[in-house]
């Protein structure tokens, strides 16, 4: 670890679909940005490291700085999946190229950004779903267990369940609504066997691409799509109320599905929603500025 005065800060936000980086000067002025592929160690460590380095070098290049600048950067990074100890340890052991690297979850940096480093609660609804509350120096995280066992209300959860419903409909066990036809069209399949073969074992990001279609069909009262969206919204409602139990002064939702699922939430949740003050990447910049940050209390 170097003791030099920081010249640059970088915030990195990595999720199941993409990784973003924001480079600032010592005063926090934006210099450059970058975006690359997925960065969730739960989906592959090598892929995550490649995405992190790719978006970091993009941000440095976008700022018009030489690639060698990276060893002068104090970085803060939040990744999906780092709530699980094994993946956190993987990243903690990384021989990274930065001057310093603070690591945490994507949820933590989202919470920092949403509330400008102050107290508050946040729910991420993107490829995955999870919630965090930060009040009086104490953080609590809920969800974020991965779409195979959790992540209800997320894009990946909606997508894989749309596949499951479609397979049952094609077998004559559920009504064959327009959602089924749209799923078949998007996956370029014609039969249940083709659909099962094409979609089995796909990445969360691949399943999440079906989520917008589920909402579109739910908005026109498609029976199967509506059932899924109601179930997903119910989980987000219960997650939000769990966070409210800690009396956060602010509450925000972020992620690609946040504005789409918000209309389906209960009124007591919607009335507490407030816009995020800053992006997760800026939250990661704030995290980069911290000396010896502590890990989340899970």
From TrEMBL:
It comes from the Bacteria. SUPFAM superfamilies: Actin-like ATPase domain. Pfam families: BcrAD_BadFG. It is an enzyme of class 2 (transferase). GO terms for molecular function: glucosamine kinase activity. Residues 11-288 form the ATPase BadF/BadG/BcrA/BcrD type domain. Its EC number is 2.7.1.8. This is Glucosamine kinase. It comes from Saliniradius amylolyticus.
């Amino acid at each position: 670890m170097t003791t030099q005065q920081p010249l640059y800060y970088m915030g990195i936000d990595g999720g199941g679909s993409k990784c973003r980086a924001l480079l600032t000067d010592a005063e926090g002025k934006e210099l450059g940005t970058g975006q690359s592929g997925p960065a969730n160690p739960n989906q592959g460590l090598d892929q995550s490291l490649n995405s992190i380095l790719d978006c970091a070098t993009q941000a440095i290049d976008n700022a018009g700085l030489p690639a060698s600048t990276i060893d002068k950067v104090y970085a803060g990074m939040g990744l999906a999946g780092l709530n699980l100890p094994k993946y956190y340890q993987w990243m903690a052991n990384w021989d990274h190229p930065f001057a310093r690297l603070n690591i945490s979850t994507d949820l933590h940096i989202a919470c920092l950004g949403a509330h400008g480093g102050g107290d508050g609660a946040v729910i991420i609804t993107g490829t995955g779903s999870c919630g965090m509350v930060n009040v009086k120096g104490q953080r609590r995280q809920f969800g974020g267990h991965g779409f195979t066992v959790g992540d209800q209300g997320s894009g990946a959860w909606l997508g894989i369940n749309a596949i499951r419903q479609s397979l049952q409909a094609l077998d004559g066990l559920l009504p064959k609504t327009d959602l089924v036809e749209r799923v078949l069209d998007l996956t370029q399949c014609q039969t249940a066997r083709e659909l099962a073969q094409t979609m089995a074992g796909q990445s969360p990001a691949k399943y999440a691409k079906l989520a917008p279609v589920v909402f579109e069909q739910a908005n026109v009262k498609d029976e199967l799509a509506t059932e899924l969206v109601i179930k997903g919204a119910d989980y987000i409602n219960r997650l939000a109320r769990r966070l409210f139990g800690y009396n956060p002064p602010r509450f925000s939702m972020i992620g690609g599905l946040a504005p789409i699922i918000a209309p389906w939430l209960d009124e007591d949740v919607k009335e507490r929603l407030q816009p995020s003050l800053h992006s997760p990447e800026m939250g990661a910049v704030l995290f980069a500025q911290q000396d010896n940050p502590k890990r989340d209390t899970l």
